[in-house]
Amino acid sequence: MRSQVYTGQVKLHLRYRQPQRTALSSRARDSPSVRPLPGLAPDVVPYDMSGKEGHTVRIPVTLVENMPELKENPFRQQICKVFTEGDHGHMTFEEFLDMFSVFSEAAPRDIKAVYAFKIYDWDEDGYLNKADLKATLLKLTKDGLDEEEVQFVIDKVLEEADLDDDGMLSYIEFEHVISRAPDFLK
Ligand SMILES: [Ca+2]
Ligand SMILES: [Ca+2]
Questions:
Q1: Digit-coded pLDDT (tens) for 29-73
Q2: How far apart are CA 180 and CA 83, in angstroms?
Q3: Which is nearest to 130 in space by CA: 146, 153, 107?
Q4: CB 16 within 8 Å of CB 114
């Protein structure tokens, strides 16, 4: 699965599998911070992952969504969807490590931005339109805004960030606006 970002003549393909992520994952695999996952379904995830288990072990996403790290996250379902390819009901151990790598403090900001964009792009069309922004806002505020307030915030965001005035945010526009909010991806 891939999404596309158009910037004039330049077409960037944002793929789920990126070289940086592979590098990140292998680093994460060696890092002690990823090791202690004793609560993660010992019957599904073998202790010794030295062989091909990273590709073949399939963890039900319901288990992943209920981990302490994700349980309270309003985007947990969307996060699991973004980090699973093909079968969204299960996560391979490799996908699982990728997910934690991206959320780790060590992950580069641009990688975090790419995944934040994917998470907010609910209909997976490669743009954040008003419906995507609305769904995101309602999750962020835990449905604490009424219709009028939501509309107000969306209009403000687009006024500020929609540089080509097409009523939605491309990845480049999104990246531009979050680059001015240094704490956004923390
Ligand atoms: Ca979209
Ligand atoms: Ca735009």
A1: 444 444 445 456 656 666 666 666 667 788 999 999 999 989 999
A2: 26
A3: 153
A4: no
- Rounded CA-CA distance 24/98 in Å is 8
Distance 29 CA to ligand 1 centre (A): 32
The CB density around residue 173, as the number of other CB atoms within 10 Å, is 21
- Packing angle between helix 19-30 and helix 109-120, nearest 10 degrees? 110
How far is it between the farthest Cα atoms of the chain? 54
Whose atoms come closest to the Cα of 118: which ligand? 1
Domains of the chain: 55-107 (1.10.238.10), 108-185 (1.10.238.10)
Ligand 2 center to residue 71 CA distance, Å? 33
pLDDT in tens, 71-129: 999 999 999 999 999 889 999 999 999 999 999 989 999 999 999 999 999 999 999 99
Whether 85 contacts 2, CB under 8 Å = no
CA distance 77 to 62: 9
Cα 132 from Cα 104, distance rounded (Å): 25
Q: 128 - beta bridge partners?
A: 169
